[in-house]
Amino acid sequence: MVSLGICLSLVAGLQGGSMVFVPVTEFTLAWTHSIEKVRWEEDYVVQLDAAGAQAVLHAVQARVRGSAAGMEPPSGAVLRQGWYHYVPAIQTPPELRLTRSEFTPDYVVCVQGRCQSMADWMISDGGITLLKACRKPE
What we know:
- The protein has no helices and eleven strands.
- With 138 residues, the protein is an all-beta fold.
- 17% of the residues are buried.
């Protein structure tokens, strides 16, 4: 049985750095914009590609709570209960490059309604953390 999930690693530590595997096939990635203080959420699914060889990250839907300067929801977004809902333009990103800073709240990963700071799985070095779909390392 294939165990799928997400792999987290620090860009600065790619050579010999540690990688953390989180066993999850559906999750929400959330964050608060550093200046406008507006919450964003993106829902993802981790699945195997058509050949069954590679784990793939699939962006299912996204939402932003309101809008602000430079943060307009994309064309076609629908406003429901204060959130603009839309389907991300890039639906199968090869990886997510998450800039994490000590000056802003950390990213939050929600699985089945339980949300945790990304720092619960991987410390931040104040730089970029890579998040990508993967199989459980052997």
